[in-house]
Amino acid sequence: MFPNRTAHGRFPSVHPLVVALAALLPLTAAAQDAPAAKDPVALDTLQVTAQRRVENAKDVPVSISAIQGEKLDVLGSAGDDIRFLSARVPSLNIESSYGRAFPRFYIRGLGNTDFDLNASQPVSLVYDDVVQESPLLKGFPLFDLAGVEVLRGPQGTLFGRNTPAGVVKFDSARPSQDADGYIKVAYGSYNTWNTQGAYGGPLTDRWSARVSALYQRRDDWVTNTRQGAPAQGFEGYDEAAARVQFLYEGDDVEALFNLHKRKLNGTARLFRANIIKPGTNQLVENFDRDEVSTDGQNFSDLETWGGSARLKWDLGRVTLHSITGYETAESLNHGDIDGGYGASFLGAGNYGPGNIPFASESADGLPHHRQWTQEFRVESNEWGRFDWQAGVFYFDEDVTIDSFNYDSLTPGNPQTGHAEQQQRNKAWAAFASGDFDVTERFKLRGGVRYTQDKKDFSASVLQAVPFGTPVSGPYIAKTDVNDVSWDLSGVYQITDNLNAYARVAKGFRAPSIQGRLAFGGVSQADSEKVISYEAGIKADLFDRRARLGFNVFRYNVDGQQLIAVGGSNNTATLLNADKTIGQGAELDFEAYLTDHVLLTLGSSYNDTEIKDKDLAVAICGGGCTITDPTTVIDGGTYALVNGNPLPQAPKWIHNLTLRAGFPVNDASEFYVYTDWAYRSEVNFFLYESPEFRSRSSLEGGLRLGYNWDYGQYDVAVYGRNLTDQVRVVGAIDFNNLTGFLNEPRTFGVEFTAKF
C-alpha cells in the first residue's frame, strides 16, 4: 500500500484550546468546593526506565513523556489502534496507509513514510524489552499496560535497533504474588465493541502468572455506491490479542516468560478518489465520508505471535540480565489504490466521485517472517559514585515479501503481476554506559555502542506486470556497515526540586534496500547518522502538586534516508538527502489545580528543513499544484525539494487533558475528563503542493463517569472526535487527487470492574 507523508505548518490559532479550557472552568470551581482530601494531594513520583534502570524521571537527562493509568485508558476507550497516541505527547506523530496494520512513527519530525514491508524506521518500538523491528509488529494492541514512555532524541547506546529519532517503549503489567485483575467492556458507534481483561496471582510461593486478553470489532460504516463491486462496505475490523506471563522469583534469580499473539481481520486503508478540491487542501463540495465509489477488492489480514524470556541473576556486586525474544508475522493487505472506478478522465476541472485516469489495484503480503533477538547485559549494584552497565546484542531477521497487481477493469479482478523480495538482516552490537557523581549535585553520564549490520537482499519478477518489469531476476543487493554511536550528558541539581540537564548524542540507522520491481526497480539508501543536542530543566513544584519538563533541541542528520513515492510513473525510490536539520522546544506539564482537578499539558515546536540543492523527486501524476522549483531530467519533470520540511513533521503539537472529580463520599465520585490534541499542517510528500498539505487538526474527547467502592467499579459515557472534524491525513499522488481520512466521531458507554 501507499504511505501518507507530511511536514510543516504555521503557528496555530490557540483559541480552540483556550475555549476548551475556559468551558471547564466552572467545573474546576465546583470541584474545588468539594470536601478537601484528608491528606495533601501530590503527584506520585514518575518512575521511568529510560536508562534501563528504574529512576525518577527528573533525574534522567533525556526528554521523556509518559502515559499511564487512567489517561491511557481514556485515550483508548473507543477501540482505536496505536495511532490514538499521535500528538498525545510532544513531538510524536503516528500515521498509516495500511490502517490498523502498519503504523509509522515520527519523533521531532524524523520518521519514514516508506510503505514497504521491510521498511526500517528511525523510531524504535520496544515492547516488554524486545525491539519490534518489522512495521507489522509495531501495531500490537495496547492493553493491560503498566505504562508507555516516549524517549526523544537518539537512544542507540542502550536500545538495540535503529533509534536515531527516539524510542516508544511499552511495558505490560507484570505478574505478582498479589492476586488482582480487571474486566472492561465498552460499546459504541458503528456497533463497536472494545473488551479486555486480565487476571494474575500466585501459582506457588515462587511462581506467579498473569493472563491478559483483548477483543475489538467494528462494523463497516462506509458504503460503496459502485454497484456490483467486490467490496460493498469498508472501515470495519475484527481483532483479538492475548498475552500470558509467568514470573519466577527466587532468592538470587528472577525469570519472566511472555507469550503473546494477535489476529486482525478487517479492511485495508480506504483510498477515496477525487476528494481534494484542486488548488486547495479543502474537501470537494458535497463530500460524504459515509460513501465511496470504488471497484476493487479491500481486506487486511494479519497474524503475529511471539515470546520472550527475561532472566536476571543477582551476583552480588553486579546483576546479569538475559533477554531473548522471538517474533513472527504473516499478512496480506489488499486495496484499491486508485480509490475509484473505471479509467476515464473527465477533463480539467471535472472530478467525478470515483472516475480515475487509470486503474491500480495491488496487495502486499508477508508469507514468511521471523525475528530473533538476544541481549546479555551486566549492571553494577550501587558502586558508590560510579555505576555502569555493559553488554552485547544480537539481531537476526528473515523476511519474504510478495507484491501482487490486479486488473479491476476485468470481472473477477484477475491477478496480473507478482514480484517477490527476500531479505536476511543480521546485526550485533557491544555497548557500555556509566554515570559518575562528580559532586552530590552534579552527575555525568556517557555511553558508547559499536554496531555491525549486514543485509542480503534479492528480488524477482515472477509474473510480469502489464506496465512494469517483465519476468526477470533475481536482482541481488548486499550491505555491510559498522558504526559507533555515543552519548554524553550531565544533570545538575539546582535545588532539591529543580534539575537542569544537557545532552549530546549520536544516532545511526543502517542502510535500507527496496525492490518495488513493478514501480521502478531495486533502490538502496546508505546509512543515516544524527548528531543531537538538547538542554532542559525538570522540576517538582508547589510541594509536588505540579511537575514541569522543558527543553530545547537541535539536530543534524547526514545522509537521511528518504523515500520518493508516486509521481506519474508511480515509482518508489530510496534516496539519501545530503543533510537535514531540525530544531525546536518541548514542554510537559502536570498539576493538581485543586485537590480534585488534575491538568496535563504538552506542547512542542519542530522546525525541520532538507538541505540538499540537488535533491529532485518526481511530481504528482495529475491534478496538483507544485509550488517548488522544477527541473527536467530525462524528459520528466522533477521538483527540487531543497529547503522543504520533512514529510509528516507538524511544526506544532499541543495536547491537554483536564479531569475534575466530584466526591460523593470517601469511596465514590462523579468525574469529568476531557482531552484535546492539536497538530499543525503537514505535507504528505517531499515536494510541496497545496492539495497534498493536510489542514491543521484539533480533536477532542469527553468522558463522564461515576466510580465507586474506592475505584473498583467505573461506568462512563464517552465521545471521541467530538467536533466530528474531517481531515485528509494521507494521499496518493500518481493518479488523481486521492486521499484517506481520520477516524470519525464516535460515542459509547464503558464499564470497568477491578478485582
From TrEMBL:
Instruction: Report the Gene3D superfamilies cross-referenced here.
Output: TonB-dependent receptor, beta-barrel domain
Domain of life per record:
Bacteria
**Subcellular location(s) per record:** Cell outer membrane
Q: Where is the TonB-dependent receptor-like beta-barrel domain?
A: 288-722
Q: Where is this motif: TonB box?
A: 45-51
Membrane topology of the entry: Multi-pass membrane protein
Q: Principal localization? A: membrane
Q: What keywords tag this UniProt record?
A: Cell outer membrane, Ion transport, Iron, Iron transport, Membrane, Receptor, Signal, TonB box, Transmembrane, Transmembrane beta strand, Transport
Q: Which residues form the TonB-dependent receptor plug domain?
A: 57-167
**InterPro entries in alphabetical order:** Beta-barrel_TonB, Beta-barrel_TonB_sf, Plug_dom, TonB-dep_rcpt-like, TonB_box_CS
- Which Pfam family is one of this chain's hits? Plug
Cleaved signal peptide residues: 1-31
The record's similarity note reads: Belongs to the TonB-dependent receptor family.
Q: What is this protein called?
A: TonB-dependent receptor
* Originating organism: Stenotrophomonas bentonitica
